[in-house]
Amino acid sequence: MVKIALADDDEEFLELLKQMLEECFRAGKLCCRIDFFRNPELLDMEYAEGRTYDVCFLDIEMRQMDGRELAQRIRERDRAVYLIYLTSHGEFVRDGYRVGAFDFIMKEELCEELPDMMERLLARLERDREKTYQIATHSRYEKIAYRDLIYIYKQGQNARFVLTSGEKQERISLRRVMEALGDEEFAFVERGYIVNLTHVTSMDQGRVVLSNGTILPAGKEYIQRLRERLGMYSMRRLETMGRS
What is the pTM of this model? Predict the structure, then answer.
């Protein structure tokens, strides 16, 4: 299920956008959950408490909090979320590039612009959800979506996978897990931990903070490499969004 947040203080516009989004998802045969935030500060609080969305539609001009500020705060906590600006003023468009916005929509042209944008967005979401780690044993077979995987740590001879919805384990070394992931989104922080870069919210000397509030230890050399990896990952993601 795709989780969507709509932040706009115009109730009538929110209802129209919700109806159009539901039609797009039905046409694409995908399920979605849409949450309204007439006060953008409430969406900011959701992220502060560790909850995330796949897509956020943000009105740039809101009374309680500027949509550009909200976008920046969300992006600092979630590098994977798709941000879409809603605006009545074209001069705000360039601000979207600073936070890697997927697109922007002129509110007066919603009916004309939304279907094409949603076609591209749904295709991107499908590609994202195809990226999975597979646990296969003689007794079970499971797929873990990369987006849901926060970090992995070693426990005895097992690798423990910490997800947004709980934990799984597999009898395998972290080195082999990293080889299987084979993706630019993951990195070691210390020898016993692998983190998903999209879930790193902050770091300083000696620690890395993740989206679920977990704080992991990290040596100076790991912090430096992690900063480099995060920079490269963010640049690639911005380039990809810019080609959408």
Answer: 0.68
Are the beta carbons of 170 and 141 closer than 8 angstroms? no
Query: Residue 209: is it exposed, middle or buried by C-beta count within 10 angstroms (0-12/13-18/19+)?
Result: middle
**With contact defined as beta carbons under 8 Å apart, do 5 and 37 qualify?**
yes
Alpha-carbon gap, residue 170 to 163, rounded angstroms: 14
pLDDT tens digits along 29-64: 888 999 999 999 999 999 888 788 999 999 988 888
How far apart are the C-alpha atoms of 240 and 236, rounded to whole Å?
Answer: 6
Query: What does the DSSP 8-state code read for residue 81?
Result: P
Count other C-beta atoms under 10 Å from residue 37's C-beta: 24
| pLDDT band, very low/low/confident/very high, at 206 (cuts 50, 70, 90) | confident
Burial class (CB in 10 A: 0-12, 13-18, 19+), 159: buried
